[in-house]
Each structure stands twice: as C-alpha cells, then as structure tokens.
TrEMBL record:
Physiological role: Involved in DNA repair and RecF pathway recombination.
Keyword DNA damage annotated: yes
Family: Belongs to the RecO family.
Limits of the DNA replication/recombination mediator RecO N-terminal domain: 1-82
Database matches in HAMAP family: RecO (MF_00201)
InterPro entries (UniProt xref): ARFGAP/RecO, DNA_rep/recomb_RecO_N, NA-bd_OB-fold, RecO, RecO_C
Protein name: DNA repair protein RecO
GO annotation, biological process: DNA recombination; double-strand break repair
GO CC annotation, single: bacterial nucleoid
The keyword tRNA processing is assigned to this record: no
Length: 248
C-alpha cells in the first residue's frame, strides 16, 4: 500500500546522499521524527533547490510505503525560513539547539501536533524575545514534561514542605527538589538558591503564548541549560550533546 502524506515539517538535519540526493531528518507534525529521501535535490534547477535547509518550516508531500525503510519526499514548499533569526548570531544557536534536542530525544512514536506547534511557536519567538536563553530553558522544561519526566519543583520530595527557604537541592535522579534539611547526604544534587528555584518554578508554569513577556530576569550562578540537559539525558539513558550553543 502506498499513500501520500501532506503535512507541515521542520527540517532538523540534512546530508548529501550519493550523487545528487539528500537524506533529511524531519520533525513532521502528524508523525514525529522521521527520515526521508529527497531525490535529485542537488540537480541544477530542481524545485527542491535551497528549500531543504535545516530550520526551514516546510509543507511537504511524502510518498509512503510500509515496505520502504526510507520514505520519499515528493514536494516541499517553504512556509517559514526564519530569515531574521538565521542572521542573528546571538539567537540562531538557540534555534539550532532546539533542532539538536528534538533529533536526540524524539522519535516516530512522538507524534504530537500540539507539541509540534509549540516548538514552532518557540522558534518563531526566538527572533524577537529579549532573552532567547530563557525561551530555551523553557523549552527544556516543557520537553522534559512532554517526555514524561516533568521536574517536581514545588515542594520537597521527602517531607513535602512548600515554603522552601535558603538553599534547596535539585536531584537529577529523582527529578525533584529537596529542602535544605532533607537534601543532606544524597547524590547527584545541584544546589539552588531561593531566587534560582523561584525562577524555574515560575517558568515551568508560565503560559507559552506570553512567554516572550516572562517577567523574571535569569538569576546568575548556575548553568540551567547544563542542569536540565543532564537531567533529560539521565532519564533517557543517553547523554545529550548540544553543539550549537558553543557558537555563542
Ligand atoms: Zn524536606
């Protein structure tokens, strides 16, 4: 059985394949992450020319056959190439980092149209947000929740206390907070001051439509991205490497 799928897709990655073709890793709105082949993409004057770059949001037509391991890209129109974001070297790395995260954490089983639309919304807003880094930390928190590892940040995992004063501890292993009394002697803990914890608590529950107006500045002192990436990697049982942010 052969069928055609017409849908939106983000290009996560592309590599040259043989003489003139490309293999693309796509995040497809109704299908999750999947690879397709774009035949003849490198031939001069082919309609694919220039459209299949990483980060482009496309409308694609894919010819699908169950017996094939690699489906075939038939048509691709660019819906958004994010030109402003692409040119801004203080913002573009965060968009590329989102692509790297998706590629390493999602698969075909993760087809979720709401999460796809959320991802596109965050990438769009990276172009104008005052603090693109905060949007990326927000994305890490939401991706963790989407994958089933929502960090429990609002009360001590051990004693249940919600009024967390002074220093608390985030346990990568438990995905939860321990108060200053209960955190002693546990492994894999990262200390969080009250303002750092409050920042993460507010960010985790903030509505995504208003995220560019998030009111709290990033409290200095810890690397939130490294902490949340380590947390995700621990629970997925594979280390996550984000190379794009080294461009900053
Ligand atoms: Zn406690």
């Amino acid at each position: 059985m052969q069928n055609q799928l017409k849908d939106k897709a983000l290009v996560l990655h592309s590599i040259r394949w043989k003489e003139s073709s490309k293999i693309l890793t796509l995040f497809i709105r109704s299908k999750g992450v999947d690879k397709v082949i774009a035949r003849s993409a490198y031939k001069p004057n082919h309609p694919f020319g220039g459209r299949l770059e990483a980060l482009n949001l496309l409308e694609v037509v894919i010819s699908q056959k169950q017996s094939r391991s690699l489906q075939i890209l038939q048509e691709a129109e660019v819906l958004d190439g994010f030109p402003v974001l692409r040119k801004d070297l203080t913002r573009q790395p965060y968009a590329l980092a989102i692509l790297e995260l998706i590629k390493q954490t999602l698969g075909e089983q993760h087809s979720d149209q709401i999460f796809f639309d959320f991802t596109v919304h965050i990438i769009k807003n990276l172009a104008t947000a005052d603090h693109p880094e905060i949007l990326f930390i927000y994305y890490l928190l939401k991706l963790s929740s989407f994958l089933g590892f929502k960090p429990a940040l609002h009360n001590c995992w051990e004693c249940g206390k919600t009024d967390l004063q002074g220093t608390s501890y985030f346990s990568v292993e438990k995905g939860a907070i321990f108060c200053s009394g209960c955190g002693e002697g546990l492994e894999l803990l990262s200390a969080l001051h009250k303002d750092q914890l409050y920042f993460l608590q507010r960010l985790q529950t903030f509505p995504h439509k208003k995220i560019v107006d998030f009111p709290i500045p990033l409290p200095a002192g810890i690397n939130y991205i490294a902490l949340l990436t380590r947390f995700l990697g621990f629970h997925l049982e594979q280390p996550i490497h984000i190379n794009a942010l080294s461009l900053l």
